[in-house]
C-alpha cells in the first residue's frame, strides 16, 4: 500500500516518539474541536469535529495491528461519529441552499416547514454526535499517545 512511501526515523526510540507525539496532537485537535462544539455549536465547529474524527479513524486503522480488538472498537465508534456528523453537515448545506434560493422550495409556508424540520433534526444529530464524541475522545491525548507509543515499541521488538 502507500505506507511504503512513508519515511520514519530508523531508530526505534525516535520513531516511537514521533508516533506518540503525532497521536497526541491529533487527540488534542479533536478535543479542541469538540470543546468548540460544546461552547458555540457553529456549523464550522461541527465540520472541524467531523474532519478530526475522520483523521482519528484513519489513525486507528493504520495502527489496528498493534491492538486489533481495541482499535477496531474505537474505529467503529469514530466511523459512526463521522456518519452522524456527515448527516448534520448535509442538513447545514440544505439549509444554506434554502436560505440562498428560497424560491426553489415553494411558498413561504413550505420553506418555513422545511427549515423547522432541518433545525429539529440537526439539533438531534448534534446532541447525538456530542454524546458520542465525548466518549470517543474521552481519553487524555497524552495518555492515549503514550499507550500507542508503548504498543508501537512492543510491536517493533
Helix content: over 70%
Gap between N and C termini, in Å?
Answer: 23 Å
Q: How many β-strands, per DSSP?
A: 0
Q: Whole-number average pLDDT?
A: 87
The arrangement of helices and strands along the chain is: HHHHH
Compute the number of structural domains: 1
Largest sheet: none
* Helix run count: 5
- The general outline is elongated
Strand content: under 5%
- Class by helix and strand content? mainly alpha
Radius of gyration over all CA atoms, rounded: 20 Å
Write out key terms for the chains shown:
mainly alpha, 5 helices, elongated, 157 residues, single chain
Structural notes for this entry:
With about 160 residues, the protein is mostly helical. It has one domain (about 10-155). The protein has five helices and no strands. The two termini are about 25 Å apart.
Short description:
By secondary structure, the chain is an all-alpha fold.
Mind sketching the topology for me?
Elements: H1 12-39, H2 43-62, H3 68-100, H4 108-136, H5 141-156
Helix pairs in contact: 1-2, 1-5, 2-3, 3-4
Amino acid at each position: 500500500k502507500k505506507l511504503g512511501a512513508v519515511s520514519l526515523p530508523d531508530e526505534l526510540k525516535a520513531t516511537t516518539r514521533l508516533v506518540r507525539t503525532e497521536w497526541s496532537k491529533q487527540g488534542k485537535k479533536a478535543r479542541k474541536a469538540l470543546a468548540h462544539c460544546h461552547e458555540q455549536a457553529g456549523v464550522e465547529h461541527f465540520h472541524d469535529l467531523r474532519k478530526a474524527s475522520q483523521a482519528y479513524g484513519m489513525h486507528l486503522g493504520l495502527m489496528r495491528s498493534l491492538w486489533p480488538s481495541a482499535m477496531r472498537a474505537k474505529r467503529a465508534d469514530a466511523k459512526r461519529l463521522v456518519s452522524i456528523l456527515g448527516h448534520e453537515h448535509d442538513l447545514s448545506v440544505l439549509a444554506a441552499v434554502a436560505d440562498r434560493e428560497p424560491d426553489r422550495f415553494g411558498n413561504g409556508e413550505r420553506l418555513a416547514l422545511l427549515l423547522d424540520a432541518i433545525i429539529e433534526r440537526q439539533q438531534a444529530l448534534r446532541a447525538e454526535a456530542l454524546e458520542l464524541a465525548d466518549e470517543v475522545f474521552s481519553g487524555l491525548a497524552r495518555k492515549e499517545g503514550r499507550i500507542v507509543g508503548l504498543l508501537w515499541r512492543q510491536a517493533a521488538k
